[in-house]
From TrEMBL:
Organism: Bagarius yarrelli
Molecular function GO labels: methyltransferase activity
Gene Ontology terms: biological process: methylation
Classification of source organism: Eukaryota, Metazoa, Chordata, Craniata, Vertebrata
This protein's GO CC annotations: cytosol; protein-containing complex
Protein name according to UniProt: Protein N-lysine methyltransferase METTL21A
Predominant subcellular localization, coarse grouping: cytoplasm
Catalytic activity field: L-lysyl-[protein] + 3 S-adenosyl-L-methionine = N(6),N(6),N(6)-trimethyl-L-lysyl-[protein] + 3 S-adenosyl-L-homocysteine + 3 H(+)
Family from the record: Belongs to the methyltransferase superfamily. METTL21 family.
Record carries keyword Methyltransferase: yes
Location of the protein in the cell: Cytoplasm
Keywords noted in UniProt: Cytoplasm, Methyltransferase, S-adenosyl-L-methionine, Transferase
Transmembrane segment boundaries: none
Keyword check for Ribosomal protein: no
Length: 218
């Protein structure tokens, strides 16, 4: 969500974030993503949570073929691109300022025969949700999108709008601060949440959430 660049003096050791591109291999394809730390900040680089999510998806822990997916806070688009390469119909979203680099990465890394199964769309959490059909997605994906406490309520309302009781929500994140735990608690009020994967090397958790039924539905 945030598009404000961090102070570079704090993160000089993270040279990979300052590279103009990042290379990966998923779904038997080379994926090269443009990055722009100076211009786009945290939304324009690839974070470890996205890589861990892609590994998890490629290992087949989630059925993707012929499923409808949406990625929130996609940034450079790695998760959404890999999800499409693995067979899903994907809407890849972020705020408007992040869309140029996102659209370019999708165009460069999704082969022509799959371009029709991928769309890039502007989505600011909690705003204009009527443009996205309520409860119509099989899978909602988010990698490292739980970090700004002021966005938590909007993120939760977005997840509620997009989900039905059969939708799987997968969130990959580091638990850095107490506020991250608070979001998981907020999520647990509306969804049944469980940790399904942990990468100790990258310190990234993946949580699966499924919307709870309302009292009227029980």
């Amino acid at each position: 969500m945030a598009l404000v660049p961090y102070n570079e003096n704090i993160l000089l050791s993270l040279s990979k974030l300052h590279s103009s591109s990042a290379d990966f291999r998923f779904a038997e394809r080379r994926i090269r993503l443009a990055q722009d730390w100076k211009g786009g900040g945290v939304a324009a680089v690839v974070w470890d949570a996205a890589v861990v999510m892609c590994v998890y998806l490629e290992l087949g822990h989630v059925e993707l073929k012929n499923r409808t997916a949406i990625e929130l806070g996609a940034g450079t688009g790695l998760v959404g691109i890999v999800t499409a390469l693995l067979g899903a119909d994907v809407t890849i979203t972020d705020r408007s300022a992040a869309l140029p680099i996102l659209e370019s990465n999708v165009k460069q890394n999704v082969p022509p025969h799959l371009q029709g199964a991928v769309r890039v769309s502007e989505l600011t959490w909690g705003e204009g949700l009527a443009r996205y059909p309520a409860g119509s997605y099989d899978l909602i994906l988010g990698a490292d999108i739980v970090y700004l406490e002021e966005t938590f309520s909007a993120l939760l309302s977005t997840l509620e709008h997009l989900s039905s009781e059969t939708t799987e929500v997968l969130l990959a994140c580091r638990i850095r601060y107490e506020r991250d735990e608070r979001f998981l608690s907020m999520l647990g009020d509306k969804f049944t949440v469980q940790q399904v994967h942990y990468d100790p090397q990258k310190d990234v958790h993946i949580y699966r959430a499924v919307k709870k039924k309302t009292k009227s539905e029980l």
